[in-house]
Amino acid sequence: MARFSDLYLDYQSRHRGHPLLWPVWVWSLHVPQRRRNGLNALAHAVLALHEAAQDDPDWIAPRLGIETDLVRYIVVAQLVPNGWLDRYRRITEEGRRQLHGDSDRPLDQRAGLLFQSAETGEVWPRYRGDLCEIEPENPNAPYPRFRQDRDSGRTLNPFLLRPTSATPPAQPEVAQILEALRLDRIARHHRRQRDGDLLDPEDIPAATIEFIDPQPRPAWLLCGVYDNPGSDQPWLVSDPLGQSPAAAWMRREVYQASRRVPRLAESLSKYLGQTDQSLNWEAYRLREDERVRLKVLTDFPGVGHIPDLEEALISLLRSRTTVGDAGRGARPEEIGTLTIEAQKVLEYCCLWCLDRWPLANPKVRLRKQMSPSELVKAIGLAAPEISSQVIDKLTVQPGKVFWAVTGGRASLRPYLAGILLSFADHPDHHFRPVASDEGLMLRILQLSHDRDEQGHGGGPSSRCPGSVTAIQHADTAEEVVHRLTEGT
């Protein structure tokens, strides 16, 4: 596969955590900028709000995304001394001229760069004036390494995400560009940049935005995943354009990409698996949840095709970790939960099968007068590869099977019976490799039996399997998922 780009960019003030190289398209633009007479964009916004009789700093600050003290500073140090507000913080005539008198001033064109993700196609909410290029140690290496520190000799070995396509995208719409510029301005305001050179997207005529080059330039942009202990998000992703320490929109993009690329999910999972002994229990739990979520994407890349299965697998692996770590000390409720989660995973698999390969004419084939022995015979005819031992243990009432195949809520065995009956209608049924494995089918039925013995109420009379058995049930559920999702 041809290399996506030989251009590597780095806007990070410092590197931390697990480095990533992200594929982007770089657009070169001419963006107009109107300079105000002594007013930067923040002061202009504060003055405009005073004209609208909104002069409370506590009201203004959150709406501009800045601190209250900064609003007071702008009023006291800029607007009042320049005569744009009077001593009662009311706008003056000179202030109104300052607000509205520059609408006819000529626009200066400034060249800049806009970035579009080659992974999602999203236009990033950032705008930069120049390229910050870095050189790899070996330009011909398939996975580039970069010198992090000349004195120590440490290097960066980033995970390189290859894009799904190397075809340049269409030019972004003007509305997308304006929104990116607006969000970039907010990010700059958060850094308190009051140098008077900030872009004001709302004041930019759309017709004056010009592309310097009709085609974007492909590039790799350096960012990093790093720990965020003590938060509900145990890991963050640095802002690839360096405007802020972290970028929520980039975290979402990394997570979405990990669903497409199991190697990325595996890389992040290994990074998160390096447990810091100083973490408290809550921080450890949140970190472990993220690690389990990424492990699901790594080990079960096809789960996205089956509704609700991903979350069910996450719960199963989380419960399995709890029981496995506790060993013989696992509590009965933890063991019971693991069995329940294993059955849920299998039920979601069965519901998907019944929806994708439905049973034809269920009212005819599962008539009300049908006896259990007739149902057993029908299953044997529809699925001759099923052993008699499996069919004998598949004890279920025909009425419950009818309810299961017609959209009603049922349990695992009725779902299984409905799937086996549908084999006669669908020679290509994905459940056949599972059904033809007698040992696997007997383990599935044993799981269902133990779940019934455990009871649905969880009362004192319920019987819970041991931790070893519960982990075996989890293995069974995971194996079924692997069989069903192979090739999906």
How many beta strands in the DSSP annotation? Answer: 10
Helical content band: 40-55%
Look at the helices and sheets and give the structural class. alpha+beta
- Low-confidence sequence ranges: 192-203, 275-281, 457-462
What is the terminal separation in angstroms? 24 Å
Radius of gyration: 31 Å
Overall mean confidence score, pLDDT: 83
Q: Helix tally?
A: 18
How would a crystallographer describe the biggest sheet?
A: 8 strands, mixed
Order of helices and strands: EEHHHHEEEEEHEEEHHHHHHHHHHHHH
Shape: elongated
Q: In percent, how much strand structure appears in the residues?
A: 5-15%
Protein topology:
Blueprint: E1 8-9, E2 18-33, H1 41-51, H2 57-64, H3 68-79, H4 93-100, E3 108-117, E4 123-128, E5 146-147, E6 155-156, E7 159-160, H5 174-190, E8 210-211, E9 217-227, E10 235-237, H6 248-260, H7 262-272, H8 281-299, H9 309-326, H10 332-356, H11 362-365, H12 372-382, H13 388-393, H14 398-405, H15 412-422, H16 432-435, H17 438-454, H18 467-485
Parallel strand pairs: 1-9, 2-7
Antiparallel strand pairs: 2-3, 2-8, 2-9, 3-4, 5-6, 9-10
Helix pairs in contact: 1-3, 2-3, 6-7, 7-8, 8-9, 9-10, 9-18, 10-15, 10-17, 10-18, 12-15, 14-15, 17-18
